[in-house]
Task: inverse folding
């Protein structure tokens, strides 16, 4: 927020309206008002964004509503005005947010002082009727402006129409077709009711709703008379109805929103069919709004050119988030109400801030139907981000070395051949984690040996002399093939998944190992196994690999067999493991989940446990020291390895190989160049010794790095 604000204020002259707009956007406030302190003691409202409380024009502010924040703004000790912010639903600001807004007040003080010195101007109110802001959490940082797509309702291809009478005729024909379809469903009788009782009931209720509410169709006709096409009118009215239904206290009635969705979908399909339209593909650059999304589904949307994702339920280490990160799709989660309020084709700003408490999980915004002022500010930020990327690109060919000369191997986590281009684009030294299941998820099933071998061989071809660590199939948990049924286990993350499946279905595993060996075609091959919990499991998996290697010719020039450290039990077998494994890669996503018994896909607990906690830091320092003593290469490949503060901390603890999503490589290289690893290591060891029961050391570590301008 402060960087964006600083840039805006550096503009000559930054209007108070722009500042109010930006502050509201960046703090997740539904309203932000800026007030000037007049000489007669009055606080005068000068600019506002959103529907602001009427608190002003009084010498002393009256009590504020819950969730409001009132910050006096001083310039050279003199009161020049106030900032007032309010969160939706009275949600309060955290201490850190309060501090950041306090800093913002310092930054804007000169602008307020200048405004006080000028004669009073008419106040600027930026409260566009249609613009609405929704808060969420960042899963993949980035900023996108684009049209909304909602799975289910296709975006109207034509928004306006010149001939309302023709549109009305189309509508009536479509309504008649839709009613015939519903009648046919009802007439299908008990058989249909048994097969899909829920569907039939919903359709009937939707039918009753439309029959009982002729106002619905009247409203669609009214919209057509204003110049909208029939499709756009159906969309608009469906949106209005959704909004109305959402406010109904009765949960059953409220849930009938789905019926309206269904009804609108049927009507739109009938309109499309009559127009002979082919199914609508989303426009490239679109932003998908979804309640939940699986990784396979996301891949399908990506192929259609998706630019941004807003998902109600997902956390940063869920596989949809990992896929989104791999594909560089800015993503936010935990946004509620947006899906109901948005219409397909509505313009959306997706502002997923980076650098929050955990690099992800920071405050994110989705602005629906942004005002021209909001669009201007975000477009500027977009341009600034482009420039920043361009300047980072100059680091591509430089080695990743710290200020005191420690070389760190920065590698990529990828899972799709289309990501191979990132090797050159980032200058990464190799692929530290190739998630073989992602390509299988993309095609919906595990491929046969030849097809798998072709994928792996393409990876090795493109990587050339750069090392690649293939991980065997890690299916299960939240990584399901599209044609799989939903998991029936109560606890799939801890269930029959990953290596357990491979060991219980050795033919599946053998086919994959054969494909890998064939792909290597005499070159060096590194294979690692996920979710290893015992040495016996590692041995069994390795035995399968070695047995296959006996059969495939030519043999790889060198075969390296590694282990992922994801299950905490391995920590108590670590020395024995190090004596047998060729390399170890720490998967912090699963390791954190199991160490803290905290579901990695559950956003409600995502911020409760921190990698920068003494327990986790101690564990990593210990493994790093043991691996070094045993001469076994160690890397970290969980998402944390790509977040600057965590990644630098890992380096400070002695980890010199990190594997991460592509967008993380260059920023990390830049930060590393500013770090004195020896000095940082000494600081970290002291911090861990004196932690005194702290549940996170993040603040101390961040301050230390910030004070040395390493990263913030
Ligand atoms: C991990 O668990 O940290 C890891 C890298 O594997 P995945 O995220 O694919 O489970
Ligand atoms: Mg894992």
Result:
């Amino acid at each position: 927020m402060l960087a964006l604000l600083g840039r805006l204020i550096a503009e000559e002259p930054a209007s108070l309206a722009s500042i109010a707009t930006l502050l509201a956007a960046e703090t997740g406030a539904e309203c932000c008002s800026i007030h000037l302190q007049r000489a007669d003691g009055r606080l005068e409202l000068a600019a506002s964004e959103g529907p602001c409380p009427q608190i002003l024009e009084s010498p002393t502010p009256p009590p504020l509503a819950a969730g409001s924040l009132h910050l006096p703004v001083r310039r050279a000790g003199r009161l020049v005005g106030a900032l007032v912010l309010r969160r939706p639903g009275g949600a309060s600001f955290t201490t850190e947010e309060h501090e950041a807004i306090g800093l913002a007040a310092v930054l804007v003080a000169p602008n307020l002082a200048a405004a006080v010195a000028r004669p009073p101007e008419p106040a600027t109110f930026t409260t566009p009727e249609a613009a609405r802001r929704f808060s969420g959490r960042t899963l993949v940082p980035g900023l996108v402006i684009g049209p909304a797509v909602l799975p289910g309702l296709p975006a109207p291809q034509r928004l306006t129409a010149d001939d309302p009478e023709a549109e009305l005729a189309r509508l009536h024909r479509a309504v008649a077709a839709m009613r015939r379809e519903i009648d046919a469903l009802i007439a299908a009788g008990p058989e249909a009711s048994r097969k899909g009782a829920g569907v039939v009931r919903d359709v009937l209720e939707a039918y009753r709703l439309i029959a009982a509410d002729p106002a619905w169709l009247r409203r669609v006709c009214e919209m057509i008379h204003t110049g909208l096409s029939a499709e756009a009118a159906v969309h608009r009215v469906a949106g209005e109805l959704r909004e109305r239904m959402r406010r109904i206290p009765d949960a059953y009635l409220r849930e009938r929103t789905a019926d309206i969705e269904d009804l609108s979908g049927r009507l739109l399909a009938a309109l499309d069919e009559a127009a002979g339209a082919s199914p609508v593909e989303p426009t490239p650059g679109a932003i998908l709004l979804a309640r939940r999304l699986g990784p396979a589904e996301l891949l399908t949307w990506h192929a259609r050119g998706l630019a941004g994702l807003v998902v109600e339920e997902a956390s940063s280490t869920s596989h949809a988030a990992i896929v989104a990160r791999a594909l560089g799709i800015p993503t936010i989660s935990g946004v509620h109400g947006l899906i109901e309020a948005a219409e397909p084709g509505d313009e959306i700003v997706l502002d997923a801030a980076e650098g929050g408490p955990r690099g992800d999980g920071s405050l994110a915004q989705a602005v629906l139907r942004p005002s021209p002022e909001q669009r201007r500010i975000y477009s500027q930020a977009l341009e600034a981000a482009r420039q920043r990327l361009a300047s980072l690109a100059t680091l591509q060919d430089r080695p990743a070395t710290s200020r005191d000369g420690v070389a760190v191997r920065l590698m990529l986590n990828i899972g799709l051949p289309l990501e191979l281009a990132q090797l050159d684009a980032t200058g990464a030294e190799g692929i530290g984690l190739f998630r073989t299941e992602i390509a299988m998820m993309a095609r919906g099933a595990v491929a046969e040996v030849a097809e798998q071998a072709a994928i792996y061989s393409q990876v090795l071809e493109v990587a050339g002399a750069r090392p690649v660590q293939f991980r065997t199939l890690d299916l299960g948990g939240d990584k399901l093939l599209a044609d799989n049924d939903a998991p029936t286990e109560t606890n799939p993350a801890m269930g029959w998944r990953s290596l357990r499946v491979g060991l219980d279905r050795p033919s599946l595993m053998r086919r994959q190992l054969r494909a890998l060996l064939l792909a290597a075609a005499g070159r060096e091959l590194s294979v690692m196994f996920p979710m290893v919990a015992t040495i016996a499991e590692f041995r069994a998996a390795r035995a399968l690999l070695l047995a296959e290697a006996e059969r495939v010719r030519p043999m790889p020039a060198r075969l390296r067999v590694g282990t992922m450290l994801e299950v905490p039990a391995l920590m108590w077998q670590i020395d024995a493991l190090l004596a047998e494994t060729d390399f170890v890669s720490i998967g912090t996503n699963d390791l954190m989940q199991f160490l803290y018994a905290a579901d990695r896909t559950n956003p409600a607990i995502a911020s409760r446990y921190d990698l920068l906690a003494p327990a986790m830091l101690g564990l990593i320092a210990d493994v790093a020291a043991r691996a070094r003593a045993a001469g076994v290469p160690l890397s970290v490949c969980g998402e944390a390895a790509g977040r600057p503060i965590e990644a630098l901390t890992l380096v400070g603890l002695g980890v010199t190989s990190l594997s991460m999503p592509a967008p993380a490589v260059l920023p990390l290289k830049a930060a590393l160049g500013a770090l004195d690893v020896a000095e940082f290591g000494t600081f970290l060891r002291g911090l861990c010794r004196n932690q005194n029961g702290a549940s996170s050391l993040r603040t101390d570590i961040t301050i230390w790095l910030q004070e040395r301008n390493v990263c913030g």
